[in-house]
Amino acid sequence: MRIRQVVTDAFGQPDEADLVDALRADALAWIPELSMVATDRDGLVVGFALLTRCRVGAEPALALAPCAVVGDLQNTGVGTAVTVAALDAARSRVTAGADENLVVVLGHPEFYPRFGFRRASEVGISASFEVPDDALMFLALDPNRPIPTGVIEYPPAFGV
């Protein structure tokens, strides 16, 4: 319940929280160990980041969405912490043999590059809908593996 409150607070409306609920119910998209929370000293959830399965072209990939932090703690490092935790967990899965080496995100072009994200258009990754070129980004978890190209196929919960 607290994750829903954090996501709703961060985005100012419940659409992204509804997305999290729908993704959690999708056994093909949901990866429990890639749902990360940050808590305050009292153990209350104050930040959240989620990676779920998607496809790029015909290849398995991950979508980072949403990343949310309660309003009064935004710009304090909480979003960075949950994003790093999610990406580290995804890298561990790749090392253990998971197929999803690529992460895509549609997000703030000044936030995500600090984690190594680059414009998806640089490598031929696109969305099936109009998005600003600098907001659609990708990250290869293991840069020595091939990077899939093509259109991102999001889970049905995304509605695109």
Distance between the termini: 26 Å
- Spans of at least 5 consecutive residues whose pLDDT stays below 50 are none
How is the main sheet built? 8 strands, mixed
Helix content: 10-25%
Secondary-structure content class: alpha+beta
The radius of gyration is 15 Å
Mean pLDDT figure: 95
Total beta-strand segments:
8
Shape: globular
How many H/I helical runs? Answer: 3
| Secondary-structure element pattern, one letter each | HHEEEHEEEEE
Strand content: 25-35%
Structural description of this entry:
It comes from Gordonia prachuapensis. One of its GO terms (molecular function) is acyltransferase activity. Its EC number is 2.3.1.-. This is N-acetyltransferase. By secondary structure, this protein is an alpha+beta fold. The protein is 24% helix and 29% strand. It has three helices and eight strands, in the order ααβββαβββββ. Strand 3 (59-69), helix 3 (78-95) and strand 4 (102-106) form a beta-alpha-beta unit. Helix 1 runs antiparallel to helix 2. It starts with a helix and ends in a 7-residue tail after the last strand. The mean pLDDT is 95.
Short structural summary:
With 160 residues, this protein is α+β, with helices and mostly antiparallel strands. The protein contains three helices and eight strands; from the N terminus they run ααβββαβββββ. Helix 1 runs antiparallel to helix 2 (15-24).
